Structures are given as structure tokens and as C-alpha cells.
Amino acid sequence: MSLFKVFDISGSAMSAQSVRLNTTASNLANADSVSSSVGETYRARKPVFAADLNQALSDRQESVGVKVMGIVETDKPLLKEFHPDHPMADAEGFIYKPNVNVVEEMTDMLSASRNYQTNVQVADAAKQMLQQTLRLGKG
Amino acid sequence: MAISFDKAFGIHQHALTARSSRAEVLASNLANADTPGYKAKDMDFQAALNQAQNNQGFSLSRTNQQHFAVEIAPPGMVQFRVPNQPDTGDGNTVDVQTERNNYMENALQYQASLEFLNGKISGLLKAIKGESM
Questions:
Q1: Helix (H) or strand (E) holding A1
Q2: Which pLDDT tens digit goes with each residue over B49-84?
Q3: Helices A2-29 and A102-134, axial angle in degrees (round to 10)
Q4: What ipTM describes this predicted complex?
Q5: Chain B closest CA to A1's CA: distance in Å?
């Protein structure tokens, strides 16, 4: 019954989108974390989505779920600011701020939550279809 | 005179099978709306219905656990959708609005087939019980 597979597929998308929401939350939370060296500074994290290859290689090829391949840190340059009075300033008077783009993170957040909602609705519609099938012939 | 369930239920039982596999394909499109490089797919409903009716397509039997599960669908079943937008930048061709509409439409058509089946079953029950229509 392929309707049961809909739950697996939308479920995988929901978990992938919630990983995306988690990384977005982490990025936004750390948007203002200041540090005194390049190595210690927080960098924006992004999940990498891929169609689930295992599922694609197994019995059916038509439908695949989503897999989070990993979470990567972006390579955008950090913000280096001259702030000699800052308590975290290094010997030369610089502080380092994360490369988090708040606007980008907000749009990512909206996109993730919309996609999550869509997948919930897909699973809900499949649930209704199955329930009606179970009631078949009961009048 | 025997009651033939195959004749009584007609095409609707096969339509349900085809509709539920289409739901799976469309759900996969919606799930992969943010996956780079994913290409949206859909099925040729006529071909899917024919397959459901005749059980075309074949799978190889597996005599060992390590064998690949090979299932060969009849040609022309699942095809890639022609995208509305030429390029979205990441190679993904899923248009969420289109897919959602198709998914809901497919679900309603599934329910319509269920209604038809329910009607047939209640008709058969009436015939069995000897009630008047």
C-alpha cells in the first residue's frame, strides 16, 4: 500500500526541515556572539539536503525521502571590527563577529516552517485517505 | 448466478491502486521541495491504471539477501515533469503550489473512487439481503 509510504516520505521531510529550523535558531541565537580570535568565532551553519539514495536504490525508484547529509559551516568572511575598548578585543584592538546574515536566516526560518506545514498536511491527507479506505463497506 | 466482485467493482478498485501510487510520487515531490538537484515527477495516470488492471511490469526473484531488489516498472509510468520555471538556481524543479494542488486533487479523486466502491458494496449487500432498492 503506497499510502503508508507517504508517511515515511513526509516524515523524512519534516525531520529534515526541523534540522534546518534548529540550525537557523542556532545561527540567530549566536548572531551577536563576539570573540577575540578567528578560530573561536561562531560561523553560520547550514544543513545539506539530498534525496535519500538508499531509498532510491531499494525496491522502488519513483519516490524518495529527504536525507540530511550533514551540516556545514559557511565560508563567508567573518566581520572584523576595530573596537579597542571592547573587553573581548585582541591585542591589536579587533573583535570578530559571526558571519550570520540575520535577514537570510529569517527567510530560511519561514521557508523551513512553511515546508514543514506542507508536509504535515500531506501526511494528514494520506491519513484521511487511509481511514476512509478502512471504513470501506461499512455504509 | 454467481456475483463477480471483479465485474461489480469495475474500474474503481484499480483506480484506487493507481491513485495511491500517484499520491506517493507527489508526496515525494513535496518532501524534496528544498533538495538541490531534485527533479519533480508525476505519473501517466492512464498507464498507471492499465498497469493496475493488468499487473504489468515484473520483478526479479531474490534468492539471496544480498541481491538487489530489481523491480522494473512498465515504460512510461513515472516521468519527469516539465518545469514551469527554467532554472531555480539549484537544479530543483518542484513547484510547491502545483504539487499541492495535484496532491489534493488526487486525494479527492481517490475519495471519489472510494464513494463509488461504497455504493457498489451497499448495492451488493441489498441484493444479498433481498431488500428493495
A1: none
A2: 887 777 655 667 778 878 777 666 555 578 888 888
A3: 160
A4: 0.85
A5: 7
